Amino acid sequence: MIEAKGVWEAIANTPAPTLTELFTAEPDRLSRLSFDESGILFDFSKTHLSAPLIDQLVALTEACDLARKREALFTGEIVNVTEGRAAEHLAERGEGAPGSVARARGFQGRMRAMIDAIEAEVLGPIRHILHVGIGGSALGPDLLIDALGRNADRYEVAVVSNVDGAALDEVFRRFDPHATLLVVASKTFTTTETMMNARSVLAWMDEANVEDQPIEFLPVTAAPDKAVEWGVDETRILPFAESVGGRYSLWSSIGFPVALGLGWDAFETLLEGAATMDRHFRLAPPERNLPLLAAFIDQYYSRARRAETRAVFAYDERLRLLPSYLQQLEMESNGKSVKADGSPVDGPTAAITWGGVGTDAQHAVFQLLHQGTRLVPVEFVAAIEPDHVLDDGHHRALLVNCFAQGAALMAGRANEDPARAYAGDRPSTTILLDRVDPARLGALLAFYEHRTFANAVLMGINPFDQFGVELGKEIARSIESDGTDRFDASTRALIARAFG
Which of 7, 180, 293, 415 satisfies CB 3.0 to 4.6 Å to 421 for a cystine? Predict the structure, then answer.
């Protein structure tokens, strides 16, 4: 049995060809490392993956027992070992254990019936959807509504996560409380920020004398009993399985505002697109398995080349929220310091995910990417077809800039003036969608989920818990209830300055 640490040490100590040398030595490099799947082109050729390196990494997956762990994920076994749960988000797409899929279909039927009733105005005339959640209960719906709903005229949808009152205040100025449906999304239905926002929305409705609206408050939760305690009729609750983690939950009833705002057909297509990537990840061999190859790249730059961050740039305004979505998916899943068995990790875990929107980012951070001293693997995400009416070259200019940046990072340029020299040999991946639509976006997000899982297996950690978010929340509650005496001098001074 090979040892992962030894493999990485050997790889790190082996001189790596430059990207230019790899293209010269491997005439078939583009065809071997460029893949078309589910209407998306994945081009890994501008990374330092080579045939020998892929062979080593495939051997590493065998040592990590990835195939068995992947099958455990798909068949509903306990993979979240610290909480004793399966991770059943795949069931929402029809790819999990039969019992889990049947339960998910039941929840979806309940959501579909609710949408039908709203559209038939059985539950009153609704024009505005106010979705309140935080973390995974908000990031996924926000991304999908922003990406796919820009031309939708069904409902006006707002997603509010921040407990800062300015976020709700902005929505209150636009929405009519008598035509607003409040969706409260919380897995536990106890999340402090979400419940505070929910109370404020209900108070806003009460002040407007919203009393005769058949439905104004719709909970989405894995703890229906907690919603009932709020006085909600259980027939108005949209549940989802406790084994569906927050950052993997947009496929469940957490996606209700997506299904209502875009239409049920669009939501089903989103699920089907994700399911195609599920099947690819489950069945494709390692050397052609897209999430696994992407995880190989992540691990190579993190462990062998000591890269601490990964940058994602969406060269499409519709995907502007993708970097934020990936920050939670990747860093909350894999930002750990112990393995699944509780032992310390033997190398770096999740890279710091960051990014922005092209071409804005070119005039902000690309100076560092091209000429800085830190190695930052870059990921470009773009789409061939726009959905705007401007036909004077805007989209062509956008894509030209995207492709040019990847080429420049790789090629570099020599100059007698070192301030004007570009080192080159800087890696990038390009992900090019045929178009931004439910099927392709579903496949793309499922790709990132499976990439996150594959990274976790290669690092030996559990990607499905998130205990790191608890301590700060506990201290916040303590400040509210117990006073400040037990805190450090700095924290006490800040509290005193802010609250007197």
Answer: 415
Distance (Å, whole) CA 312 – CA 324? 10
Residues 9 and 123 in one domain: no
Q: How far is it, in rounded angstroms, from Cα 351 to Cα 309?
A: 5
Give the E-state strand segments of 302-398 in sequence order: 309-315, 352-357, 378-383
C-alpha 440: how far from its chain's center? 15
Q: Residue 220 in contact with residue 183, Cβ under 8 Å? A: yes
Residues marked active site are found at 332, 363, 473
- Separation between Cα atoms, residue 474 and residue 495, nearest integer Å: 16
Domain closes at, from 233, 268, 303: 268
The answer to whether residues 311 and 328 belong to one domain is yes
373 in Cβ contact with 423 (< 8 Å): no
Sheet arrangement for strand 309-315: 34-37, 40-43, 428-433, 378-383, 309-315, 352-357
Count of structural domains, the chain: 3
- How many whole angstroms separate alpha carbon 483 and alpha carbon 478? 7
Write out the two tokens for 12. Answer: 């790190």
Q: Which residues pair with 422 in a beta bridge?
A: 413
User: Nearest-CA neighbor of 282 among 463, 467, 72?
Assistant: 72
Its domain, for residue 453, covers: 4-63+284-465
Specify whether 309 is located in the same domain as 197: no
Measure the N-to-C terminal CA separation of the chain; round to a whole number of Å.
62
Query: If you search the block for the tokens 């899982």, which residue do you land on?
Result: 453
Return the DSSP state at 413. Answer: B
Q: Cβ neighbours of residue 360 under 8 Å, at least 6 residues apart?
A: none
Residues 287 and 363 sit within 8 Å (Cβ to Cβ): no
Helix or strand run (H / E) with residue 35: strand 34-37
CA distance 408 to 381: 16
The CATH number of the domain where 202 resides is what? Answer: 3.40.50.10490
| 489 C-beta neighbours (distance < 10 Å), count | 7
Instruction: Round to whole Å and give the CA distance between 254 and 303.
Output: 35
Any long-range contacts for 58-63 (C-beta under 8 Å, 24+ apart)? 58/286, 58/287, 59/2, 59/7, 60/2, 60/4, 60/7, 60/458, 61/286, 61/292, 61/457, 61/458, 63/1, 63/2, 63/3, 63/4, 63/7
> How do residues 254-300 score in pLDDT, each as one tens digit?
999 999 999 999 999 999 999 999 999 999 999 999 999 999 999 99
